[in-house]
Each structure stands twice: as structure tokens, then as C-alpha cells.
Amino acid sequence: MILEEFLKKNAEEIDMELYNLFGAVSGELNKASAHLLLAGGKRLRPAVVMLAAEIIRKGSSRDILPAALALEVTHTFTLVHDDIMDGDSVRRGEPTVHCKWDEPTAILAGDVLYAEAFELISKTIAHDSAKIKSVEILARTCVEICQGQHEDMTFEVRDDVDSYEYIDMVGKKTGKLYAASAAIGGILAGCSLKQMSALYDWGYHSGIAFQIQDDFIDLMASSEKSGKDRASDLREGKQTLVAIKAKEAGVDLSGYRKENLTDEEIEEAISKLNKAGVIKEVEDIAMEHVKHAKDMLIILPECEERKLLSDITDYFITRGF
Amino acid sequence: MILEEFLKKNAEEIDMELYNLFGAVSGELNKASAHLLLAGGKRLRPAVVMLAAEIIRKGSSRDILPAALALEVTHTFTLVHDDIMDGDSVRRGEPTVHCKWDEPTAILAGDVLYAEAFELISKTIAHDSAKIKSVEILARTCVEICQGQHEDMTFEVRDDVDSYEYIDMVGKKTGKLYAASAAIGGILAGCSLKQMSALYDWGYHSGIAFQIQDDFIDLMASSEKSGKDRASDLREGKQTLVAIKAKEAGVDLSGYRKENLTDEEIEEAISKLNKAGVIKEVEDIAMEHVKHAKDMLIILPECEERKLLSDITDYFITRGF
């Protein structure tokens, strides 16, 4: 199966399951919790959970479906809270929860999703020992995501962030949840420790590549295409890898740090970055993580799902603007 | 052992364990997470976890200590987020997390504690099936606490809240976490379903009594004694049981809904409430829940720890201002 087909089918299945669970909730808090969860998305983390499980044990993805949902719910909880902190007003083409409702409701909506993620893990059909191990990994991952988000915020008021700090930060903020998705899928399907470790590392490095690409998308894609405010990183002067490498290359982006940035100004910035070789340099770093991630898969049983996991890594850095 | 001695010894033990876990953390986010956790408190929820476990299996409280900490950590996470929503500046005599740091850090600090609670459950020495059941109960409880907090906020802009809605709200906001504390202590020590149900109901009704008393303390205790701003409920016009019963009795409290309330004005309000029989009526409702709670304990093995659990219920409505 080609990746595109798989992801489409998987997203439809996850959308349906989420709709069954959260589509008919009553009360404003539950509606606020369901809002972003039901606003679509590529459902990449559930796809990773399902594929990792299938690699380890054919037919296991049906049993561990609640865990796949748990990883999407966890991701959504972090987005709801991040949007408050970052002051973002649009996500997946919808108003963010704190804009549609209010900040207290958005804090609680995120907290509700947080709990529901752990509840979903507990409802998976798997050995209790595998479920407890999954709870432990998911909990540690949530701590690391929070640390990554906090570092991301502190980077905004620093001007000396280097590329190693950036990679470590996005590793926590994005890499760890892909790592947990793959590892939890494998664990619940009964993988060995060595397999778990390989799946975890695959997810971690794929996630870093994903986040580097995400920063490119923020810079290059139109608001209509990305469903988010365009170039918010540039406007806010965020310390993305592009910004760090731009600084190293002597490209001054400070003039673009303003609220109302026109598309022309954004194009001008991209042109400067291209000329200075910054875009190429950042792409090369992403490619290193892609290679590292794909190398991890070699110890796993060769099968269609392993190929799809490998294709996902490629997709992470080729998905369009 | 008398309750006071037990609670003192338990609080010292829990303080020490929390200090060992969170006392030497580095980084601002981890410090913000540890701040309120290390600011003392009566450690009542861990006490309940430990007692429930001992009732079911003598000597089990040592094994399930991480779960006792998990319940305190959960409680602390809810306080950190609630303080943001309620705009409170002082808690346990310390500045609240969002005041000492900032709102984004406080959101993340609560999120970190949230994950650590589940991680602690996974580290308990108990059967995996008991741990997964505990995860499930804790997760559902967190959803209910959020719902209770959201209802509490919506009550502020309503003037038709009745006492049944209030009891249901505090049952979610406070009762359920005591219920979970008792049930999880019992489950991890190997209790039967019937025993779990009794422990859960004991905690639920004790917690309701606790919250009614907490509202009294907010009204009557000095800031120095409670470690919180005095009479914040009165100032904010919160729909406490006192306020609801005052309205039913024709006592107008709207004049006290202002930022700078003097101690004389607070005493005047209390005097009006006493004269109208409101205080007595609310105390009677609390006593009904105390009786219900204590009745639940009868099916459990008779022992010193069962007596202490019963004494805790009494303590909940007698603790001073």
C-alpha cells in the first residue's frame, strides 16, 4: 500500500472513532475538549502506533486502537495549552479553544483530554504489564513535552540559542511523542526491549525532522494551506533552526519581527535565506535525522508496515507547503 | 493512636518523600512544579491512601507509598491550575505559581505534576492489574475534578444555583479525589470490589463535608490562619452552600461582593447568617454526609486504621478556623 492511501484510510478510521467517543458530548467543557480533536488533522501519531503494533504482531492494531487514540488525544491536549501560551487564534482552520471559549475553559479542556489519554491506555486490550509500561512512557513523555515547550518559550527572550539546544528542545517538544507513539504501539503488541528501543529512537529522530519541516511550513505555507497564522515564528522572532542558522550566516531577520508582516516581506526573507544557503543547511540537518531514524528500523521484521513507517519519515520532510 | 498524632507523623513522612523527589530539581519549570508541592499542607489525601491500604492488608502502606504521593501531586496540579483561573495570589502562605512565575509557566507546571502523578502510580509495588485499575480511576477522577471546577466557574455568573447542584459540584471538585484516594489505596492493597465501593463512597461523602467546611473556613478564618485571602468567596459572590441557603432564607449578601472587604464587614455578614439560621442549616447538611460516609466503613475489617479513617471524617468538619 502506498503511504498516502494508508494515511487517508487511517485518518478516516481515527476520525470516526474519535467522533464516536467525543462527537455527542454535552456541556460546554466537554464540547471545548472535543473541539480541536474533531477538527481533523493527519492523525500521524495514531498511524505510528498502529503501524508499530502491526510490525510486532500482525492483527494487533485492532486491540490497541484505544492507545492510538490516546496518543492523538495527548497531542491535542498539548496543542490546546500551547495555543493559550503562544496566543495563537487559529489552528486547523478553526478558532483555538481559548478564543472560541475562554482561557479557564481552555486550561480545563486540555486537562480533561490529558486524563482521557491515560484512561484510553487503560482500556486497551493488552497485558496489564504492557499497559502499565505504556502509562509510564506516556507520563514521562508528557513531562518532556512540557519541558520542551518551556524551553521554547525561554528561547524567545534569549539571543544566544545554538542549534544543539534547538534540536534538544524540538526533540522534547515533538520527537518524544512520536517516540512514545512507536514504542507504545510496539509494547502493547508484545515487542522485546531491543525492538522497543529501536521504535523509540525511530520516532524521536523522525519527530525532530518533522519539527524542522514544521518550522519551514510555518514560514512558507499560506494560512489557507496550513490552517495557521502564516510566519508566526518570524513575526514573534522565534529561535527556530532557520533563525539560528540565519544568525550564524549573518542574515538579519530582526526587521521581520513585527505583527503585520506582508506576504511580500515574507518572500523577501525567504529569498535572503536561500541566497545565504540557510535553507539548504537546515534541510541537511533534517536529512541526518531522517537517516538516523530509518537506520533504526533495520532490526525490526521486514514487512509492509515497516516500509510504511520508513515512508512516514520521508513524508515528514517532504510534506508540502 | 489519636488522629492528630497520625496526621502529624504522616505529613512529616510525605513531606520528606516529596522533598527527596522534588527538593533538588533544576530549571525554572521543575522549580515551579515543586513550589506548591513543597509548601506544606496537611497531606490528607496521602493519609487516606495509606490508611485504606492498611485496613485491607497490614503492612501494605510501605509498598503503595508512591500512590499516596500521586494523590497529593494530583491535588497540587489542580490547585496550580485553579489558582490561575480564580486569580488567587496566595496559597499555603506562599505566592501562587502564576504570580511567582507567570501564567504559561504555571500551566506547564501543573501539566508536569499531572504526568508525574500517573508516573508515580506506575512505580507502586502492586499487581499490574491493580495499578491499571488505579490509573483508570485516577484518570476518570481528573475528568470529574475539571468538570466540577468548570461548574464552579459557571455558577459565578448564575443566580439560580440550588443546593443539589452545589453538592454535585463539590462532590466532583473535592469528593471524587478523596473517593479515589481511598479506593486506590484499597485496590493496590488487594481489596474486593465491595470494599473498593465502600472506600470510594466513604471518600466521596467525606470530601463533600470537607468542602462545605472549607467554604466556612474561607469565610471565617483569618488570612494568617488559612494561608489564603480571607472571604474570597464572599467578595467574588461565589455560589457556596452558605450563599445559596442565605438566598433561600432572604439574607442579602450582594453588598459584600466587593474587592476591599473589611474584617468588620465580614463579621457583620456572619452575624446575619447566624441569626437567619443559615450556618446551622449548612452544618446539618455537612453532618448528613459525615454520617453517610462513616456508615460505609462498617463492612471493612475493624482495626485502628478504620477508626482513624472515621476520625478523619469528623476532623473534616471540625477543623478550626
UniProtKB/TrEMBL annotation, chains A, B:
SUPFAM superfamilies: Terpenoid synthases (SSF48576)
InterPro entries: Isoprenoid_synthase_dom_sf (IPR008949), Polyprenyl_synt (IPR000092), Polyprenyl_synt_CS (IPR033749)
UniProt keyword Transmembrane, yes or no: no
UniProt KW Lyase keyword: no
Cofactor(s) essential for the protein: Mg(2+)
Molecular function GO terms recorded: metal ion binding; prenyltransferase activity
Pfam family, any one: polyprenyl_synt
PROSITE patterns: POLYPRENYL_SYNTHASE_1
Keywords on record: Magnesium, Metal-binding, Transferase
GO biological process: isoprenoid biosynthetic process
Superkingdom of the organism of origin: Archaea
Family indicated by similarity: Belongs to the FPP/GGPP synthase family.
Protein name as it appears in the record: Polyprenyl synthetase family protein
